[in-house]
Amino acid sequence: MDFNLTEEQQMLRDAAGRFIREQYGFEARRHLAATTGWSPERWAQYAQMGWLALAVPEDDGGLGCGFVETAIVAEELGRGIVLEPFVGCGVLATRLVERADAPAFAPRRAELLEGLLAGTRQVAFAYAEPGSRFEFAAPATQAHAEGGGYVIDGLKMMVPAVEAADDLVVSVTVDGELALFLVPRSAVSVQGYPLIDGTRAGDVELRGVKVGAQARLTAPGSGPALVEEALDRAALAQVAEGLGCMEAILEITSEYLKTRQQFGQPIGKFQALQHRMSEMFVEVQETRSILLRGIAHLDDTPARRREAVSAAKVMLGSAGRVVGGQGIQLHGGIGVTDEYLVGHYYKRLLVLEKMYGDSDWHLDRFVRAQHESAAQATAAVGSATRQEAVA
């Protein structure tokens, strides 16, 4: 794998970084977090720059890029701790709609994808439920057939940016299996609330929500694989976003240590603080390495993909606590104030650790995926040996 960016990828990084520096100032973000929670104008700009269409195939109106480009943008948006749901809508929900395979949904799929890529429609994925602990395969939300359509009843929780969404993709159990349905935001009851990082989420109640047969995204049997793959892409994109947060903390803290004076000299000259900065630097570089490993295995077998993505998510949780915590410690009391930037990065890292599976859940999944990969490798060797014996 070539770790060097191409000329086009470097241009994308430069453009995204320049946008964050010039258009997404800290005070503007604080104002948005305290009021609307996101900016429709910024979202329209994301669409104009093509960020919402990066990984969508050209046949569907997208740019047909790989996941590297998505990770580049997510990393730069992490530096700006943006409030808009780039991962939740631009990566996760868009992937679910793009890969929808139910024949009846095909006409709506094209229309919805067009709106998503143009930034005129927002979709949120509602899958987490009380007591589910990040498991998605057997939702308690139920759908049953009625009058040529379906009726959905259930409760979803912690749906990111649900208040800004025009539609929801909802995971349900129908006929004993996982399926996805498109539900208008106006048809459900939403209780929204702010998260500690300034972004917003909400709990969604579906009570007798009626949808047509064309609202079903997934054909029978395809739901679990589609959802797991899309969630893995979202989790890996959030690792990239967290990497951007940690890099920003490292830069801010380094600059502070060069300017803060104590005993007649910058505190950055004290060896004990240099050791802390070195530890933070190592954590950031390890996160970048494991992110690249995750990208390399994103299109591998499901077991290898699970292993690589979960390893990256566990690393994000561990490194985020070290880098964010040390960044605040090295700033002293100012680091925990709302008026100073470093604490906001730490809060964002705390939220990213919990989204799409926390560290404990992904650590358990990583172990299970390793066992599955080992079993598959053993079976492959045994098969090859038998073929040689027959030959």
With strands numbered from the N-terminus, the spatial order across the biggest sheet is: 2-3-7-6
CATH topology of the largest domain: Butyryl-CoA Dehydrogenase, subunit A, domain 3
* Radius of gyration over C-alpha positions, nearest whole angstrom: 22 Å
Q: Roughly how many Å apart are the termini?
A: 36 Å
Instruction: Specify the CATH homologous superfamily of the largest domain.
Output: Butyryl-CoA Dehydrogenase, subunit A, domain 3
Number of DSSP strand runs: 9
The share of residues in extended strands comes to 15-25%
CATH class call of the largest domain:
Mainly Alpha
How many structural domains?
3
Outline the low-pLDDT stretches. Answer: none
Query: Roughly how much helix do the residues carry, as a percent range?
Result: 40-55%
Could you say what the CATH architecture of the largest domain is? Answer: Up-down Bundle
Give an account of the 3D structure.
With 391 residues, the protein is of the alpha+beta class. It folds into three domains: 7-118, Butyryl-Coa Dehydrogenase, subunit A, domain 1, CATH 1.10.540.10; 123-218, Beta Barrel (Butyryl-CoA Dehydrogenase, subunit A, domain 2); 224-384, Butyryl-CoA Dehydrogenase, subunit A, domain 3 (Up-down Bundle). Helices cover 54% and strands 15% of the residues. It has helices at 7-23, 26-34, 40-48, 67-79, 86-98, 106-118, 223-259, 271-296, 302-331, 341-354, 359-390; strands spanning 123-126, 142-146, 149-160, 167-174, 177-184, 189-194, 200-212, 261-262, 265-266. The strands form three sheets. The chain has a four-stranded antiparallel β-sheet, with no helix packed on it. A three-stranded mixed β-sheet has the order 1-4-5, with helices on one face. Strands 8-9 form a two-stranded antiparallel sheet. The two termini are 36 Å apart. The mean pLDDT is 93.
